[in-house]
UniProtKB/TrEMBL annotation:
Residues 260-285 are annotated as: Disordered. It comes from the Bacteria. Gene3D superfamilies: 3.40.50.880. This is Trehalose utilization protein. Residues 19-236 form the ThuA-like domain. The lineage of its organism: Bacteria, Bacillati, Actinomycetota, Actinomycetes, Micrococcales.
Amino acid sequence: MTSVDQPAPALTFARPVQVTVWGENRHEQAEPEVAARYPEGMHGAIAEGIRNNLGEASAVRTVTLDDPEHGLTEEVLASTDVLVWWGHAAHGEVADDVVERVHRHVLEGMGLIVLHSGHWSKIFMKLMGTTCTLRWRTEHDRELIWTVDPTHPIAQGIPHPMIIDEDEMYGEHFDVPAPDELIFLSTFSGGEVFRSGMTYRRGYGKIFYFRPGDQDFPTYFHEGVRRVISNGVQWAVTHRPERTTPTLLRYETEDFYTGHGYQGPMESDAESPAQSPAPSEEAHA
């Protein structure tokens, strides 16, 4: 493993970033070698990396698939700035109503970091609107992660290239929409390439997909991988006074002053802003 570059200055927030790490936690229970590799679970290793990198600038908790409501209750999501997601063997066990809840919170401004095989999770596929399929191989490939956007906040402090001695191979074509930003590109022992670090925006939420991290390898103890995830957490925070979904708004001419506080589609002409009394001069002041 290659050591990371000198750390970039941490971003400063008014309060610690509230991070929830979601882990499927199936391989750790069913496969002794995975449990030995990740004694605190993969979610535990991911959370440890974030805590080590962000320190008091973060407050990190872990939840798993087997928790009530998969640990993703309304209360948990409402208090989460950034959700980190790892899943693989049990995507289909994630309840659709929980997926809808997570989707709503992303549109309202919650950040989402999707790792490795989370590319086939219900929530990522819903946000992408594509099959999210790819090519793969588990044969101990060496991976080089090349930074193609060195000025991006997520790339700060990351070696170029970052070397992962052994990991699962992912190859193109990766069926996702063209990203807002391509940050990392991976090459593998077999000659394959893969867009391994990409960002998207959906509604008010920021999404970062990062490729490394198969259960058969100790990838989430790699200091560079941990740094990337931690940088991604800081990048994915959305600063808004409150969490709200983007809404359809109808305005009359010069109604941009207040909009009459209107939210959502009109149900009748009587509720139309056009039928409301004209705002007073004081309202425009």
